[in-house]
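hey m, so remember when u said the tokens were messed up on ur end? i reran from scratch. heres the input so u can diff it against urs
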Amino acid sequence: MSSKIKRNVLKSMIIGVLAYMGALGVPQPAQAEYADIVINNYADAAGMRPAVFPHWFHRIRFRCKVCHTDLGFAFKAGGNKITMAKIIDGKFCGACHNGEISWSVENCAMCHSGIPGQPTHFHGSTVQRLIAPAYKPLQTKDTTK
């Protein structure tokens, strides 16, 4: 892919994200959407909002192996000890969010848009809906007395 096409794709993605964030890029309170991952291993303790990772957005563009094999993300919410220092070092999210492939980390609100106090979890995951409820035996009246 030519560098001109890459720049145009990147520009389109940035414009889309800014439009999503609201007029003039002003951070808006956000909730996790379907199949997003709320990451709050360290955010609350650092006085930041939890990060919201739009899994669906990345999944429609990349195969699972890109992140889960090549970048080392565990197949479990909270399975990695992701810190801003690691991201800035080019690990995890920082492998792509480096200012060249995608936006870099200077705009905190782009990722840290979750509701404070939310634990690390999948939000609205289909898997959560497929898990059968706990077995509860039927209670019958004891008629032997």
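this time it looks ok to me. The domain at 28-126 is CATH 3.90.10.10 (Cytochrome C3). if urs says something different then somethings off w ur setup not the seq
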